[in-house]
Amino acid sequence: MPLIQFTRNYKDRSNNHGFQFEFYCDKCNNGHMSPFKASSVGIAASVLKAAGSFFGGAVSRAAYAGDHVKDALRGKARDEAYAESVQEAKAHFKNCTRCGHWVCPRNCWNETRNLCESCAPNLAEEAAHIQSKVAVEQAWDKARKVDQVEALDMKATRMAACPHCNASVEGGKFCPECGKPLAAKTSCGKCGAEMGAKAKFCPECGSSRA
Question: Residues 49, 17: contact at Cβ < 8 Å?
């Protein structure tokens, strides 16, 4: 008995009315769907069921018997339909003699080498891919050599939110919402003593914050 192709990468779309299969490329998963092949036994059982719902009695019993016949014949009929679909699908794929994969000829077959592109990559496509990948790597290297935060003063105290109103801030000395100073500590306008950001009076001279 000859080996059966497409046992790994296919989907059975068959139903009670007939048989249909999808076959997929082993590399890119693009697929081909076989023509639908009606099952005469399945259709007959469906017709008897529909008639039985109206007439009942002997017709209903015949429909029940039809289901049993359909189940008994499904295996052989399905296998025959599958084998026929495989023969039809083979025309839409190429079989790589090196790895045994079935691939679509448009995207995954190297016509020059007569092998799939997993075994014999298209050199022009590979070159374009390599160039793009190296260009990205070089862009990263170039970016690392440039000071991206030259204007950022890391010595200055940075705050994510105003200590007075909790508004988000991006920099500067005063809050854009409440106008109060963002520094954690300020100086007394009268004696120059250091004051906390929320202090209302100078701890040294008692003067009110300006």
Answer: no
In angstroms, rounded to a whole number, what is the distance separating the alpha carbons of residues 158 and 160? 7
* Tokens 């059982």 found at: 45
CA distance 210 to 207: 9
Chain segment 65-115, per-residue pLDDT in tens: 444 444 444 678 888 899 999 999 999 999 999 999 999 999 999 999 999
Cα separation of 184 and 173, whole Å? 10
At position 121, the amino acid (one-letter code) is P
Angle at 177 between CA 175 and CA 181, to 5 degrees: 25
DSSP helix/strand/coil, 80: helix
CA dihedral 78, 80, 86, 87 (to 10 degrees): -160
Q: How do beta strands 37-38 and 18-19 pair? A: antiparallel
Residue 4, both tokens: 């059966």
